[in-house]
TrEMBL record:
<dbReference type="InterPro" id="IPR012337">
    <property type="entry name" value="RNaseH-like_sf"/>
</dbReference>
<feature type="compositionally biased region" description="Basic residues">
    <location>
        <begin position="219"/>
        <end position="236"/>
    </location>
</feature>
<dbReference type="Pfam" id="PF25597">
    <property type="entry name" value="SH3_retrovirus"/>
</dbReference>
<dbReference type="InterPro" id="IPR036397">
    <property type="entry name" value="RNaseH_sf"/>
</dbReference>
<dbReference type="Pfam" id="PF07727">
    <property type="entry name" value="RVT_2"/>
</dbReference>
<dbReference type="GO" id="GO:0042575">
    <property type="term" value="C:DNA polymerase complex"/>
</dbReference>
<dbReference type="InterPro" id="IPR001584">
    <property type="entry name" value="Integrase_cat-core"/>
</dbReference>
<feature type="compositionally biased region" description="Acidic residues">
    <location>
        <begin position="184"/>
        <end position="209"/>
    </location>
</feature>
<dbReference type="GO" id="GO:0071897">
    <property type="term" value="P:DNA biosynthetic process"/>
</dbReference>
<dbReference type="GO" id="GO:0003676">
    <property type="term" value="F:nucleic acid binding"/>
</dbReference>
<dbReference type="InterPro" id="IPR013103">
    <property type="entry name" value="RVT_2"/>
</dbReference>
<dbReference type="InterPro" id="IPR043502">
    <property type="entry name" value="DNA/RNA_pol_sf"/>
</dbReference>
<dbReference type="InterPro" id="IPR057670">
    <property type="entry name" value="SH3_retrovirus"/>
</dbReference>
<protein>
    <submittedName>
        <fullName>Gag-pol polyprotein</fullName>
    </submittedName>
</protein>
<feature type="domain" description="Integrase catalytic">
    <location>
        <begin position="1"/>
        <end position="75"/>
    </location>
</feature>
<feature type="region of interest" description="Disordered">
    <location>
        <begin position="158"/>
        <end position="237"/>
    </location>
</feature>
<dbReference type="GO" id="GO:0015074">
    <property type="term" value="P:DNA integration"/>
</dbReference>
Length: 782
């Protein structure tokens, strides 16, 4: 077993390693107290802050690595560091505050909370230590003891009550006008698959779940020389977040992971050039500037009379690899296009972008035609577009030419940030590809095709990312050489990671997997749900979030955070996860006024995602034509009795397009609702049929696309244009399906409800039916 051995009193050398660290921390704490001119009663706060700082300092014993990096596997972010003992203003969120009272109160900054993503501050009025995430600190430091309490007994008692562990957390980086640190602890509730009703898990979720994601409102005034982050609009305040927590060590561990993720973000030029990676940032900025000069992007001139020069700024980011490791520092000079004047500085701005459905179709084509997928990246793509208007820009920061400070840049070519940059770049690339013998499809102007004898080359353009599919590697290399004539093209090899989507090509089985596992894990990490208990379905069956419940049980939550979560989930839906389509579509209806029940339902979706992060679209060669499935849930919305439509189409054994959408017209019967849904599916079928005809691949040509439907009444209404009292009111636009059926462009087949895989696009289903539908969509874990 383990036996404890105590040291002899007053003999620290018997425990040398620990005692030496204690000395280091005490010496740091002594300096902190001395600089801040604070009494010894603040020793615990000083030691805690010293430990926090020490954990983020390089250590020789770890090979000049910080303890934080050694433990978490990533470099710490220190942009949130404040000066110990400096003056700080805390947002006053008391509901009793009058309109004319100050919006903030002056405090003394003491350090960083270990059980919440917040700062610790001394309140001179109440003579207590508080925690708050909403603070502004004075840039310069002036030691003062005006606010230090004279009666130290009260404070000593408070210090012992709030004494924290030496295990430290990383506060989130500032991303708004005020320092905004958000709590992210998550308590898992027991699994209960049979539970139904609008309350969901509300009776088992604590109020802290709401406070975790509330975003405070900032004052309209801005004191001089305050540390702030990016500018933001005022946000609504919902619940106070200044509180003490009894979080366990497990909560703190989860907190550390969330805080580490939050460290990722843009930094300013001043922060970059004064930080530990300043040489890397300098090199990145210099390379960007030199590339712009070599490209003859501008010429210096005097600003003409009655003309206006727009500003520019440096956008600095750390680019990460698929595994999360640092790839490189990236600097980009961006014009502030928001200052451009329409009609003078720009005219047209539209630029086509490849559709994600086209990307899935390209993957399906590669499987069915035995093509290999490659990936290309055009570096600094936008600077290749030629401007048609005269645009003046001020010289970039840190690169103003001495003696020519009054001159401005007359832009000859587009740069990032201009409203017309995307359009000009696409025109340039489109011209280049057409000269190479590639023709865009009418169904997607970013999908290009080239044929050479029996060989074929497909290219899908998404801004500066090109996905290439071909059965002849010579065609691929010819394309690369052509692009290199005018652009700086980077070959990324076989398609493996693009637009946040992971691709796995299996040449032996001639199959391709598409998944967003890394994106899903990052999303869970961001919202503190990485360790949550998985759910079997995205939402509880028969869930109705429209019902009003008591005000005390259904408080408002942060609209900003709710919309951020729904928007993040939306990218999963439009890219690789049709199984989430209905849930996200339904929850998005409450974006403008989210309540606690909506937030809990959104977290239920995250729990489902936590258990299915490796869910992938599995494309396999089948030789079968495109098939469609359509369904509806009649009068599913209890507020307006509108129905929910859903459809998806399968190619190469996996879904290539899908939609879950609330109908815009009230259906008077289930037949009418299915008929409307069938019309929406027909529109997509016509689009897919046209694309297949444009591709002109013999094995993929189809005379008609078959759509499966589980409502015989809707099929009869389509095939037999009868006119009677139950159908005479249907809008003429929904009879579009009749025309396409009569023309032979589509056909509708009956499928029993138990085999209707589109069912989960119209409602939240029970576990076994959900699994069946997911498999029918070609989704499989990998």
């Amino acid at each position: 077993g383990i036996k404890r051995e105590y040291t002899v009193p007053h003999t620290p050398q018997q425990n040398g390693v620990a005692e030496r660290m204690n000395r280091t921390l005490v010496e740091m704490a002594r300096c902190l107290l001395s600089q801040a001119n604070l009494p010894d009663e603040f020793w615990a706060e000083a030691v805690s802050t010293a430990a926090y700082i020490r954990n983020r300092c390089p250590t020789k014993a770890l090979g000049n690595m910080t303890p934080f990096e050694s433990w978490f596997g990533r470099k710490p972010n220190v942009s949130h560091f404040k000066t110990f003992g400096c003056k700080a203003y805390v947002l006053n969120k008391a509901p009793t505050r009058g309109k004319l009272e100050p919006k903030s109160k002056e405090h003394i900054f003491l350090g960083y909370a270990t059980d919440a993503k917040a700062y610790r501050l001394w309140d001179p009025e109440s003579r207590k230590v508080i925690k708050s995430r909403d603070i502004k600190v004075i840039d310069e430091f002036i030691p003062t003891t005006d606010q230090v309490p004279m009666a130290k007994e009260d404070y000593v008692e408070e210090m012992h009550q709030d004494k924290q562990s030496m295990s430290q957390d990383e506060p989130i980086k500032d991303d708004a006008s005020e320092t905004n640190i958000e709590s992210s602890q998550e308590e898992d509730d027991p699994e209960d698959e049979e539970q139904t009703g609008p309350e969901m898990d509300a009776d088992r979720e604590e109020d802290s779940d709401l406070k975790d994601y509330t975003t405070p409102k900032r004052g309209s005034g801005r004191p001089k020389r305050l540390k702030t982050g990016k500018r933001g609009r005022p946000r609504k305040i919902y619940q106070p977040c200044i509180e003490h927590s009894d979080s366990t060590e497990t909560d703190i561990t989860q907190h550390n992971v969330q805080m580490a993720y939050s460290a990722i973000g843009d930094i300013t030029v001043q922060e970059a050039l004064s930080g530990p990676q300043k040489q890397e940032w300098k090199r990145a900025m210099f390379e960007e500037y030199e590339a712009l000069v070599r490209n003859n992007t501008w010429t210096l001139c005097k600003l003409p009379k009655n003309s206006k020069a727009i500003d520019c700024r440096w956008v600095l980011r750390t680019k990460y690899r698929q595994d999360g490791s640092v790839e490189r520092r990236k600097a980009r000079l961006v014009a502030k296009g928001c200052a451009q004047r329409p009609g003078l500085d720009f005219v047209d701005t539209f630029s086509p972008v490849g559709r994600l459905s086209s990307l899935r179709i390209l993957v399906a084509l590669s499987v069915e035609l035995d093509l290999t997928l490659y990936q290309l990246d055009i570096e600094m793509a936008y600077i290749n577009g030629e401007l048609e208007e005269s645009v003046y820009m001020r010289q970039p920061e840190a690169f103003v030419k001495p003696g020519e400070e009054s001159l401005v840049c007359l832009l000859k070519k587009s740069i990032y940030g201009l409203k017309q940059s995307g359009r000009q770049w696409h025109k340039k690339l489109d011209s280049k590809l057409k000269n190479h013998g590639m023709n865009p499809l009418n169904s997607d102007k970013c999908f290009y095709v080239k044929r050479s004898n029996q060989n074929i080359l497909f290219v899908l353009v998404y801004v500066d990312d090109l996905v290439v599919a071909t059965n002849d590697v010579k065609l691929y290399h010819e394309l690369v050489r052509c692009l290199n004539q005018d652009f700086q093209t980077k070959e990324l090899g076989l398609l493996h990671y693009c637009l946040g989507i992971e691709f796995i090509q299996n040449q032996s089985t001639k199959s391709v997997f598409m998944k967003q596992q890394k994106y899903a894990q990052d999303l869970l990490l961001r919202f503190g749900m990485l360790e949550s208990k998985p759910k079997a379905t995205p939402l509880i069956p028969k869930l109705d979030l429209s019902k009003e419940i008591s005000i005390t049980e259904d408080v408002e939550v942060s609209k900003h955070e709710y919309q951020s979560l729904i928007g993040s989930l939306m990218y999963l839906v439009v890219a690789t996860r049709p199984d989430l389509a209905y849930s996200v579509s339904y929850l998005s209806q409450f974006n403008q006024n989210p309540k606690k029940r909506h937030w809990l339902a959104a977290k239920h979706v995250l729990r489902y995602l936590q258990g299915t992060t490796n869910q992938s679209l599995h494309f396999q060669k089948t030789g079968k034509p495109i098939l469609g499935y359509t369904d509806s849930d009649w009068a599913s919305d209890s507020t307006d009795r509108r129905s929910q439509s859903g459809y998806f189409f399968v190619m190469a054994n996996a879904a290539i397009t899908w939609e879950s959408k609330k109908q815009k017209t009230t259906a008077l019967s289930s037949t009418e609702a299915e008929y409307m849904s069938l019309t929406e599916a027909t529109k997509e079928a016509v689009y897919l049929r046209g694309m297949m005809q444009e591709l002109d691949v013999a094995s993929l040509k189809v005379d008609k696309i078959i759509i499966h439907c589980d409502n015989l009444g809707a099929q009869a209404l389509m095939k037999n244009p009868v006119h009677h009292s139950r159908t005479k009111h249907i809008d003429i636009k929904y009879h579009f399906v009749r025309e396409k059926y009569e023309n032979g462009e589509i056909d509708v087949k009956y499928t029993p409800t138990e085999n209707m895989y589109a069912d989960i696009l119209t409602k939240s289903s029970v576990k076994h039916n959900h699994i069946t539908c997911v498999q029918g969509m070609g989704l499989t874990p990998i």
